[in-house]
Design a protein that fits this description.
Gyrase A, domain 2; flat; 3 domains; homotetramer; 5-stranded antiparallel sheet
Chain lengths: 302, 302, 302, 302
């Protein structure tokens, strides 16, 4: 369980005290505020704050004095138009702030998305908790045989058991030794900024992460994708759920144009036209490499 | 007057409808929301939205579950510490969205601040209004004689009158011709995206501008500075007033450490130490160039 | 002619003095260095410097100690793979620095691309030249009747003549008055930072613009597109030519996947599958709006 | 030793093949290209590429057609002026690309500097080497007693020995188990993207890191500072050495105004003026908190 009673009490207190505001309010998002949604075995995401709603996107696109929206239907059409034509700046007018608890190796992928604001729990200043990500058996996957950067089927039997045993034992030993090294009981105690180096990448860290909606969509497109590593994808999936309630029209457009959409190369478009004209196109006649052809066929077949 | 009655009515409507929220609320900022504060002869700034308050800064710095603030005094001390030691990320956790109406030549300086989100009124799509910045006589300054990039005293008499006459006449003629070129009355009508090229840089444009507090402080430090061009400084000054009400502790720290603070070079520090030890230091013995020495003395004398 | 003899002599001098370097050298790019390629009536682009070549992209992708390339063919395949799968960071490892002379209204579109470095000629500090963009007759387009943000056919006869007359006359009058206002002959002279406000948006400015290859490709995809305004598209086209010689493999991948490629929505993919299965799909049965359907058909028909 | 013979041969090959270029060349930097400078026990920095030199800074500031430099002395004066007045864009016109090998816990601090381009060795795709940072005894520091985020004196005797023993043993066991889990010898083999989670934060990673000179100076100011963690400071120190040879004038200005310079608050300036006027100022009469006063005194006393 990721939260202790004291933390839960702090969250409950925040949810108990609505205040009046003149700002745009997303009722769908208010229902999520501060709540911790579990991800992996000890992680979570929590919405700490947000700015804007669907109407804020069209209001900015129109640079208007008032709400900038005459009808919900018009707004949805405009949002779809903006998404389809890669107008990014109106989506940047919404902002979200999350509190995320996540394993360090997930954090290292996440931080590559540079257009965001981050405050991470400091292991120079503070002592980390004894919390490590141990995969559930069904996610203990073998190395993929066809893709260097991918997973195959779940490990079975003794191999799976041994891996779990290694991960648990090494994590705990590393943490025992971390505690031993920083202990000031009968010794000076190693500096925290040094002791942390003994901790493995499955230890949990946490941070505040703030990002605008355009850059969040970019993050979600890459990280909620089926090729993303499972352990970051589950965070992206959890975020998708709150975004769908926050800005329903923008999220629907994102789903249709980005998550459900595809990119075709010029060669791909040529092949399609020939196929629609009745020609049978093969990899040999496509002008594509084998890898490209396989990916092209997958778009049309799956 | 920058707003017409319809625009004012839209603003009044937005201010009339408070809604409950669970988010952090800055009461000082709520009082400013949507109101247009006049700047120059036709411009304004208006706060459209904001995220966070003083407590949000320390909450992020501490990566806490609740409000992250035990006492206002502790928060102020922490905010001053963060500002003094150039910790930028906690200040990035607050965000503001402004609607600004400003002359194009001011907009071109403003947009150099890249870490911000902008949606500008489109002169490709829409027709611009006949509104031009005409300086008031006291701001009709002569070229500085000592600084290529500066102003001297206000122009006087016939020269001032002639300049005002030129600015008004040329602006209006340019706009007359803009209207004439795009007119579809008895002719095809020039494309708006082309016709706009006839309009001078004192025409007003407007945009939505969203920025985090850290980058806003950077903008304000440069643009509210006495060396900034007067026409952008008045915008920065107007923004300072709302920021002071939004995040009073952060703004006070900003005033002390950034606006009121100074940067000394290593040579400057050496000189100071010698001066405090009783030595009389001159430009010749300072190791500084004449320009540096003049600026160094100005810090201590003004 | 954009360059005066003195400027041309400075460029010739730079091109006359090769020096040895151990860095990656792109021979295709060396041929372009410093040369001014004319754009519009007074503008140009010039490559001032560059970093990296095709091999630098794969070298970074592989984090290798040497050149990181065993064969040109492997490099091309990897570059195509990286482009196809939206790996942006290896393309960021190449950098280009341009000197661009361009009308102010083009500069204002250009500067919206924020991830770049810019030093612009300062009209606060210096006096601008009397150079204005006057469209050639074939580019003097009417407002589009179907697209608020577009152009129709070229203006004809008396209307075209009148527009050209207005643009020329207003530009010159504005400049005459600019000169008059800043003149210190018998008067104080208005500050340059103020006088510039009288100049229209077709006056030329110039800047140094530095950008990495990933962000340059993003710029080119939007600005070399057929929907971009003609006056910025010709700059993008000129840049495309030098990039094609600088990083031929990366540019070929960009052309196939970005410029020649298309994005389909989830609805679009569904329709395609039905069409490939022999179904006749119409707008009514497509699930798309009329605008989306028109754009979808255009992808397959053009 | 960080490099194996094959890697060294690749570097030697690159250094053996100068080619002519028309670009700006920094002779001081050419001497450093590709060479690996040792940092910590297994790390290094290597310059892979660079763009620009001191003259490129002033050339961009002047937006000039040629080299933009009439005399070295003028260039130095202009560079000092630009640095003193926080003109950042001319310094952004120089760029450097480094190959860095560094412990993961250092990489996690480093990556917080977002305005840079990074390609990191992928532990999803590849197998990491058995290389761990083990501090030398003199850098095995105790936790600071006065600063939560700092170090005290080096550990002594049995405590130091035990810490070293823990770090070595845990690292090696973690790596043994990493190898065991990914082994495909008689078992499926755990996916690399999962197995890496068992590795501690003192394992070495490597990346290509590209940054402009302005942002590099910002990095160096924070990371070459005496308050930075020792393990990242040594990287910053190594980079300082090559930058000093690359752009000597800019680096000298950086040293004087940033590294050797100080920031005083408005209160600090007030106190200084009073002290220069002969008054004895104490913390009580300074208006500063105890912490601020201690830091203020340290500036003047050290």
């Amino acid at each position: 369980m990721p939260l202790n009673p004291e933390q839960q009490a702090e969250i409950d207190e925040l949810r108990a005290t609505p205040q009046p505001t003149l700002r745009a309010v997303s009722e769908g998002m208010e229902a999520h505020l501060y709540k911790a949604y579990d991800v992996l075995d000890h992680g979570f995401i929590r919405v700490i704050d947000y700015m804007g709603d669907d109407a804020a996107i069209t209001q900015a696109a129109r640079v208007s004095y008032g709400k900038g929206t005459k009808s919900v239907q018009n707004d949805e059409g405009l949002i779809r138009y903006l998404m389809r034509h890669w107008h990014s700046t109106p989506f940047e007018m919404c902002e979200i702030k999350l509190h995320v608890k996540l394993p360090v190796f997930v954090a290292r992928q996440w931080i590559r998305h540079r257009t965001a604001n981050v405050n991470e729990y400091s292991a120079r200043y503070s002592i980390l908790d004894r919390e490590f990500y141990i995969p559930s058996p069904e996610h203990l996957a073998a190395q993929s045989e066809i893709n260097n950067q991918g997973r195959g089927a779940a490990l079975q039997g003794a191999e799976a058991a041994q891996v779990l045993e290694i991960l648990k034992t090494d994590s705990n030993r590393a943490y025992d030794n971390y505690e031993q090294m920083i202990s000031e009981d009968g010794q000076a105690g190693l500096a925290r900024e040094l002791a942390r180096m003994n901790l493995p990448a499955n230890i949990y860290t946490q941070w505040y992460w703030k990002v605008d909606l355009h850059n969040l969509f970019h993050f979600l497109r890459l990280r909620a994708d089926s090729h993303a590593q499972y352990e970051i994808r589950v965070y992206a999936d959890a975020i998708c759920k709150v975004v769908a309630d926050w800005v329903p029209a923008a999220y629907a457009a994102f789903e249709d144009y980005r998550m459900g959409g595809v990119n075709l190369s010029g060669k791909g478009v040529d092949c399609l036209k020939r196929m629609l004209a009745g020609e049978t196109v093969t990899q040999e006649t496509s002008g594509m490499s084998k890898g490209e052809w396989r990916e092209f066929r997958a778009l049309l077949d799956d």
